């Protein structure tokens, strides 16, 4: 039987080992320079007050809001800017009652010992494997 792998010749194998360099004692570097205290070099006076970087926007026009709400109520068309917000509000309005009832039922089952209700169906529907339409 022949070996499936070739052995390297002995002369290519390393006969020495490498060592890490000798450890040097720790020498801390020089401390960082101290920051010099800032002194005002000159004082300048300005005659105008500093401007506000974020000026307040003008308040919305109440007539515009009333017209938009009237249009939404009569035509059923909502301004495209409010469609995403209205979708979220409608989802919340629909989800909150479902969440409250489900959590109350699960709370009763878990902590108050109420057993789960089982659907019994119509009488005699699946009594002994007989379907509803049969037997007539």
Describe the structure.
By secondary structure, the chain is mainly alpha-helical. The protein has a domain at 83-115. 32% of the residues lie in helices and 0% in strands. The N and C termini lie far apart (85 Å). The mean pLDDT is 78.
Estimated share of beta-strand residues:
under 5%
> What's the total helix number?
2
Q: Element order, helices and strands?
A: HH
Our measurement of the CA-to-CA distance between the termini, rounded to an integer number of angstroms, reads: 85 Å
DSSP strand count: 0
Overall pLDDT metric: 78
The gross shape turns out to be flat
Largest sheet: none
Q: Which class of secondary structure composition applies to the elements?
A: mainly alpha
Runs with pLDDT <50, length 5+?
A: none
Helix content estimate: 25-40%
| Rg (C-alpha, Å) | 42 Å
Region (Disordered): 1-70
Biased composition (Low complexity): 1-18, 39-51
Keywords: Membrane, Transmembrane, Transmembrane helix
Biased composition (Pro residues): 19-34, 52-62
What attributes does this structure have?
136 residues; mainly alpha; 2 helices; flat; transmembrane; transmembrane helix; membrane
Task: Give a brief outline of the structure.
This protein is mostly helical.
Topology:
Layout: H1 62-75, H2 83-111
């Amino acid at each position: 039987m022949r070996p499936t792998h070739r052995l390297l010749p002995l002369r290519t194998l390393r006969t020495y080992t490498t060592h890490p360099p000798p450890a040097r004692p720790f020498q801390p570097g020089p401390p960082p320079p101290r920051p010099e205290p800032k002194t005002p070099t000159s004082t300048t006076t300005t005659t105008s007050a500093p401007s506000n970087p974020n000026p307040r926007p003008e308040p919305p026009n109440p007539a515009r809001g009333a017209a938009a709400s009237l249009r939404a109520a009569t035509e059923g068309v909502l301004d495209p800017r409010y469609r995403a917000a209205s979708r979220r509000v409608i989802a919340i309005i629909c989800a909150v009652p479902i969440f409250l009832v489900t959590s109350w039922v699960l709370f009763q089952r878990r902590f108050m010992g109420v057993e789960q209700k089982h659907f019994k169906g119509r009488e005699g529907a699946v009594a002994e494997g007989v379907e509803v339409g049969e037997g007539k």
